[in-house]
């Protein structure tokens, strides 16, 4: 059997599989098998109250996973699926609490990565999956990141190369008024334009000019010491000054997002300061990730 066929067989047998999406790599299990889903939480060290997103192939009907497949959901799915959008809707009765973290809603997504599509269509059902990394660590954007983070905890890892987006999907709740729970690759305006009505979200970033990330603690606990031998700076575009170990990312949102997690992995132990990227709707997803990195938890819990 090919690696893809082995991965499909593993999912059907109740095992866990790491697979690429356009955003980050996911760690998936059959969403209809609670014992299989439990293996995700064990492998990641993930709290049981954190919900998982159910990933579907384009050939799988999302309607069977929700109490009601609304007009808004249909409009958004037709425009953005496959793609980096997770829709939150009231769950169908058969969806297990272990998938939803005890909530009465479920998150659904159809990723656009061709290998993910082949896996999900071949499996034919829903695959519950968070990012394929140990909880509290950076989301993986390559198969090598998955191996480094999870090691022997996951046997089946599909290598689809580097993720093309590198940031998590935008999570949009359709319970009540449309509201972004986690800013990701898609902006509030992108969604609002398609729905032809306002989407709550896209809050302007509140980060300071420089964000200090010191052992992933809040910047309030750090003091800027320009001569510190352990200090590194992650610049956006042209650095104002440059030390030998500093890192530079592009000053366009797409390029910055693609390189962010890899850059954070390339940092050597010590203090890291991140130059705050530009503001504006295109950068909302980046600021959301940086706030999370500096110790603030987003509202999605996904």
List the domain count as a whole number.
Answer: 2
The CATH architecture of the largest domain can be given as: Alpha-Beta Complex
- Strand-and-helix sequence, N→C? HEEHEHEHEHEHEEEHEEEHEH
What is the CATH T-level topology of the largest domain?
DHBP synthase
Quote the beta fraction.
15-25%
* Overall strand count: 13
Kindly provide the radius of gyration, computed on alpha-carbon positions and rounded to a whole number of angstroms. 19 Å
Structural class: alpha/beta
Shape, per Cα inertia axes: globular
The multimeric state of the shown protein is: single chain
Write a structural description.
This protein folds into two domains: 3-195, DHBP synthase (Alpha-Beta Complex), CATH 3.90.870.10; 210-293, no CATH class. The protein contains nine helices and 13 strands. The chain has helices spanning 3-12, 34-44, 71-80, 97-100, 114-123, 143-150, 188-195, 253-266, 284-293; strands spanning 17-19, 26-30, 53-55, 85-90, 105-109, 127-129, 156-157, 170-173, 179-182, 210-213, 231-236, 247-249, 271-275. The strands form two sheets. A nine-stranded mixed sheet has the order 7-1-2-6-3-5-4-8-9, with helices on both faces. A four-stranded mixed sheet has the order 10-13-11-12, with helices on one face. The model is unreliable at 204-210, 214-225 and 296-302 (pLDDT under 50).
Feature tags:
302 residues; alpha/beta; DHBP synthase; 2 domains; nine-stranded mixed β-sheet; four-stranded mixed β-sheet; 13 strands; 28% helix
């Amino acid at each position: 059997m090919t690696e893809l066929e082995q991965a499909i067989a593993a999912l059907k047998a109740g095992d866990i599989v790491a697979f690429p999406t356009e955003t980050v790599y996911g760690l998936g299990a059959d969403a209809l098998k609670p014992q299989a889903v439990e293996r995700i939480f064990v492998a990641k060290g993930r709290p049981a109250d954190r919900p998982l997103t159910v990933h579907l192939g384009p050939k799988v009907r999302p309607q069977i996973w929700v109490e009601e497949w609304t007009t808004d959901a249909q409009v958004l799915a037709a425009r953005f699926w496959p793609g980096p959008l997770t829709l939150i809707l009231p769950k169908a009765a058969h969806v297990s609490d272990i998938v939803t973290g005890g909530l009465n809603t479920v998150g659904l997504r159809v990723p656009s990565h061709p290998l993910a599509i082949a896996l999900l269509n071949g499996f034919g059902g829903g695959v519950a999956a968070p990012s394929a990394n140990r909880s509290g660590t950076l989301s993986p954007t390559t198969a090598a990141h998955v191996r480094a983070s999870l090691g022997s905890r996951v046997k089946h890892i599909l290598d689809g190369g580097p993720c093309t987006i590198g940031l998590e999907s935008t999570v949009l709740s359709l319970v009540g008024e449309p509201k972004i729970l986690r800013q990701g690759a898609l902006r509030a305006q992108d969604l609002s334009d398609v729905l032809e009505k306002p989407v709550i979200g896209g809050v302007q970033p509140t980060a300071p000019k420089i964000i200090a990330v010191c052992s992933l603690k809040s910047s309030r606990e750090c003091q800027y010491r320009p001569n510190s031998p352990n200090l590194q700076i992650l610049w956006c575009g042209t650095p104002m000054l440059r030390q030998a170990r500093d890192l530079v990312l592009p000053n366009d949102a797409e390029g910055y997002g693609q390189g962010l997690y890899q850059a954070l992995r390339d940092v050597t132990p010590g203090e890291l300061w991140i130059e705050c990227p530009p503001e504006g709707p295109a950068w909302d997803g980046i600021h959301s990730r940086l706030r999370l990195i500096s110790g603030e938890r987003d509202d999605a819990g996904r």
